[in-house]
Amino acid sequence: xxxxxxxIIITQQQCLTGLCSPAASPSDAPLDYSAxxxxxxxxxxxxxxxDLCYLVPGRPETxxxxxxxxxxxxxxxxxxxxxxxxxxxxxxxxxxxxxxxEPNANIIVVDWLDRAxxxxxxxxxxxxxxxxxxxxxxxxxxxxxQYDLSxxxxxxxxxxxxxxxxxxxxTNNKVNRITGLDPAGPHFEYANELRRLSPDDATFVDVLxxxxxxxxxxxxxxxxxxxxxxxxxxxxxxxxGCTFQNAMKMIATFGINxxxxxxxxxxxxxxxxxxxxxxxxxxxxxxxRCSSKDAFNRGLCLSCRKNQVPxxxxxLERRCLSKVCLLDHSAFRLCSS
Length: 337
What we know:
Elements: H1 6-16, E1 39-43, H2 61-65, E2 74-78, H3 90-101, E3 106-111, H4 113-116, H5 120-125, H6 127-144, E4 152-157, H7 159-170, E5 175-181, E6 202-208, E7 229-233, H8 244-254, H9 261-279, E8 288-289, H10 293-297, E9 324-327, H11 329-334
Parallel strand pairs: 2-3, 2-4, 4-5, 5-6, 6-7, 7-9
Antiparallel strand pairs: 1-3, 8-9
Helix pairs in contact: 3-9, 6-7
Pfam families: Lipase
Keywords: Lipid metabolism, Metal-binding, Secreted
Organism: Myripristis murdjan (pinecone soldierfish)
């Protein structure tokens, strides 16, 4: 919800990050898009893995050239740390799943690879620059194409979740929704809300936490709740099948190129759970409201009990009112709606 002082806070941060001068209001600031390094690839249902056309802020003709329809819903996918310098395979899988669920939507892949392929501390710092670029795109869409931000959904994975958060802080008006897919933990666990994803960044912020094992600020995924709804599948620490032993088996079977699965398996599970929610509409996962992680571990939060008539009352949906939601697949197997 927007508080009475939200506008002042956002304006101050814009000036601190160089988007305006202290003496100027946002409307008086010159519209200069020349410094934008991030690229915005408009994908198509026919070739979801291909970068065929780029939306360029300041050049309205690129919207029509790329088939961007201002009347339709828009979903922007923001990748995370990319030390290899290219997109992970989940990107096109997610894009394809989004088109399956929303065939008429504009799907944009936000490409900040040049800033995301450095050592982790540098890439983490670059989330601010990439977020500024995304905010400029959004403000341009709203001003130039009269795009309705109530139709805009940002999807950010790992560092990309914080890129989305920074962008949400800097837009002239709130975007409708930001989904954080296991937002990165190191450098962000104790960061100021203006530096990371937070509930103030969109009208609705939902977050999946899948790799929170370890000490705070050292776990791969952020541990603290950072949205209106925070979901911790299987407790959020580890995910089924993501053991060191399984990673070794993959390396032995498919080669050394799979060594990254030691780190990425549980982290990337957030993406695949989201994809599952898009394509398996008839078999949705279940979520249970829970006041704390300790209460969850003690089994106090599940609406289904062994040897009782299975009836789960709380689905993972936008009406979940608790600050921390925990989803457990073992409980889901015991229950049916």
